Amino acid sequence: MKKTLLTALMATSLSTVALTGCSSTTGSGAIGVDRQQLLLVSSEQVLQLSQQSYNKSLQEARARGVLDTNAAQVTRLRNIANRLVAQTGVYRPDAQKWNWEVHTIKSNDLNAFVLPGGKVMFYTGIIDRLSLSNDEIAAIMGHEMAHALREHSRERLSREYATQTGIGVAAGIFGLSQNQAQLAGLAGDLGLSRPHSRTQEAEADDMGLELMARAGYNPQAAITLWQKMQRASQGEPPQFLSTHPSSNNRIAQLQSLMPKVMPLYQKARR
């Protein structure tokens, strides 16, 4: 039954792709990011939704007194961001004109995220607890900026839309019960959505590494960053069930890209 449901889901998604086509939101850069993306939702729709969410996050953080509490730290982050933004044209020229914003939330969490359109948020815990250098901050920020450049949120929404459409079609065709439809949703999540999310994370790592190198930040810091993250973690979920690559796999991939990005860093330093 699971195999039949997955086949139906994939067939529906493929038929949707045939009607709309696939494209890529960015150039390939020196790293060679050239994967085709399923984009069923418009950029405008995603930006509108994310702006509402972003404004709400800022309002709530400001009301709790945890927004941008350390002026020197915010300035430090924004200076790093400015150098990285100047390099985004290698992937998409329009990004240099985006209204990029960088804020902090006072929290002990090891976290940072980006919303579509260039809205970057750092939790202070990731900077303070890991004693991050500017190069290590650039590794995180480059990764987050890459998510925005590749419009990964838009792509995830598009894939979820295609998957849910597939589930609805399968339920209608096979007369599935509610429990069976939930099983189809889980199968689709594990078989389609989660592997794709891991792909996005690896893609952001690769692109972020190039951005930081071009901006004159040492790419080796991406490795020390994940070594610190690894030590700070109390264990990791199995990679099969995780939307993020394991730290060991992540570090190995970053190391394999050093021959491509170190010349960019050395050129930037000159």
Question: Summary?
Answer:
The protein is mostly helical.
Describe the structure.
Residues 1-21 and 186-196 have low confidence and may be disordered. Strands 1-3-2 form a three-stranded mixed beta sheet, with helices on both faces. It has one domain. The chain contains nine helices and three strands. With 270 residues, the chain is mainly alpha-helical.
Query: What is the number of helices?
Result: 9
SS class: mainly alpha
Write the H/E string, N to C: HHHEEEHHHHHH
Distance between the termini: 60 Å
- Biggest sheet architecture: 3 strands, mixed
What is the 3D form? Answer: globular
Mean residue pLDDT: 80
Range of strand content = 5-15%
Number of strands: 3
Share of residues in helices: 55-70%
Strand order of the largest sheet: 1-3-2
Cα-atom Rg, whole angstroms?
20 Å
Question: Unreliable stretches, pLDDT < 50, 5 or more residues?
Answer: 1-21, 186-196
What is the total domain count?
A: 1
